[in-house]
Amino acid sequence: MSDTFQNTLYCGDNLEILREYIPDESVDLIYLDPPFNSNRDYNVLFREESGEESEAQVVAFKDTWHWDKTANATYHELLTSQRVPERVSRLIGALHDILGTNQMLAYLVMMTARLVELHRVLKPTGSLYLHCDTNASTYLQMVLNAIFGVENFRNQIIWRRSQPKGHAKKRLPRSYDTIFYYVKSDAAPLYTPRGKHNPEYIRKFYKYVEPETGRRYRLDNLANPNDKRPNLTYEFPPGSGVVRVWRWTKERMMQAWQEGRVVLPPNGKVVAYKRYLDEVEGTPLTDTWMDIEHLHGNNKENVGYPTQKPLALLERIIQMSSREGDVVLDPFCGCGTAIVAAQQLGRRWIGIDITHLAIAMNRYRLKDRFGDSVSYRVVRVPKDLASAQELAKADRYQFQWWALSLVAARPRGGETSGKTGKRGADSGIDGVIIFTDEEKGKPKRVLVQVKSGSVRVNDIREFKDVLAREKAEIGIFITLKPPTEPMRQEALKAGYYHSERWNKDYPRLQILTVEELLKGAEPLLPPNNITFRQDRPAPINGEQHVLV
Asked: Which one is predicted more confidently, 338 or 46?
């Protein structure tokens, strides 16, 4: 990757993005957490009430894969393309014969095409970590072996969650995910991570505490097990009359004595070495990780994304196989955990996702964590009114998520109640901004509604009713088409929200066009600096938005 490399978020199908934008052997580390083939439907928040879905939504949120024209075309490409290794083609052909044209084969075909490209962009010193569950892990490892070579398999990492997945009646509940770790070649580095010491180990072996400093330590025997070492036989401590064969030379022993590291144990006369716990590295990690819990609902990291992984998990993986300045790629970047971890650890990064919702989530988290200090570009998002109109025509939900990101609003699905989070058909709420305007920090709400089609004065009247029903302080009405004068007059009738803290009035119902927002307009809201999880982030500025 050249010195002109920019951290980048790409919105689009990762197969297309990889082929069009990412050069050969340019990435140091790849982490991917693709949708599992587990029949869990993560799309309920964003599906039409009629049940209609866009292809992009299915790929991004509904982790069931279907055998359709796209899967069939990709299958034949894998069999015939010269860019696909022969052993990969033969494997896919065999799986076709064994499995038939079902959801599992569709999943494996679509994943294989992407893994071939990921192998291409990985440096010879690069590593790949594929996160999956047990439903397709056996088949995925076969695909990985065919693409990377069995000799480049390093580990099947077991990440044990703190709670089992579900309450199975015909099998034992599942309590872990699998992370396959592969390298491009033997030149790939591994910086072995270390975990925390077992508390029982500390209690048993580091049972002394230094009163002056509070440092915990143990006493190591300094006697030499070999009693025939005349060069290590001497009196110690000096003048004690105790002559032994010691582990160290007299000079080294005297230096440690003067430093206070050689002491007389409480229960004996033979000196020992004081070894502090804080000077001992943690326990080397194995391929079974049990020290990182999944994100509970009340975890401060949780942003409401259904497949979100803990930041600690991604930090560990990135630290294991990369150094500062290396390039980290996440081709299914979702809510941005890998991107945030990479930025935090001083790596360069590339994130790809097929939905504007995911790209917006990445932007929010980067803004929340790092403020304006992060430089990056966003590719394949609307940059002008014409491209916004094209997006609205192609997929109104994608347009809605993108429009919400212009005012840093969270999609309504992230804050609805119930197990599914499914919104009501006539809720009239597409997004929410939370702000605080009191010393006690009581949260207040800004409701956002997005319209991509024709608009009329009744839309404003109905939105006013929504604000009253929801007892929201402010409403923002985003429209692709210009509002009429009666609409603006009706919005003025909603009055103002008065901020006691800032002694200022803010229009209670604000109409903003997409064109105005693209030119830099912002909603009029009380100043706020609370984090993304708890409150509205500041507007996202300073990014390069490119439509390709």
From this structure: 338
CA distance 184 to 194: 24
Question: Rounded CA gap, 448 and 476, in Å?
Answer: 5
Domains (range + CATH), the chain = 22-193+285-349 (3.40.50.150), 199-279 (no CATH), 385-538 (3.40.1350)
Mean pLDDT of 442-470: 95
Q: Do you know the residue count of the chain? A: 548
Whether the Cβ atoms of residue 248 and residue 242 lie closer than 8 Å to each other: no
* CA proximity to 67, closest of 103, 96, 91: 103
* Distance from the first to the final alpha carbon of the chain: 21
| pLDDT, tens only, 189-232 | 999 877 778 888 888 989 899 999 999 999 998 999 888 899 99
Q: Write the DSSP string, 211-265.
A: TTT--EEEEEE-B-S-S--GGGEEESSTTS--EEEBSS-HHHHHHHHHTT-EE--
Give yes or no for a contact between 352 and 327, defined as CB atoms under 8 angstroms apart. no
Average pLDDT over residues 344-370: 92
- Give the integer Cα–Cα distance in Å for 389 and 392: 5
Residue 56 has pLDDT above 50, yes or no: no
CB 135 within 8 A of CB 186: no
Contacts of 372 (CB under 8 A, 6+ apart): 541, 542
- Mean pLDDT over all residues of the chain? 85
Amino acid at site 454? S
Longest dimension (CA), the chain: 104
Lay out the sheet containing 174-183: strands in order across: 288-289, 153-165, 174-183, 122-132, 27-32, 327-330, 348-353, 8-11, 377-379, 544-546
- Checking if the pLDDT of 491 tops 70, the result is yes
Model pLDDT for residues 76-130, shown as the tens digit of each residue: 999 999 999 999 999 999 999 999 999 899 999 999 999 999 999 999 999 999 9
- Tokens describing residue 152: 């480049």
Q: Which helix (H) or strand (E) holds 201?
A: helix 199-205
In angstroms, the CA 460 to CA 179 distance is 50
Q: Does pLDDT of 535 surpass 50?
A: no
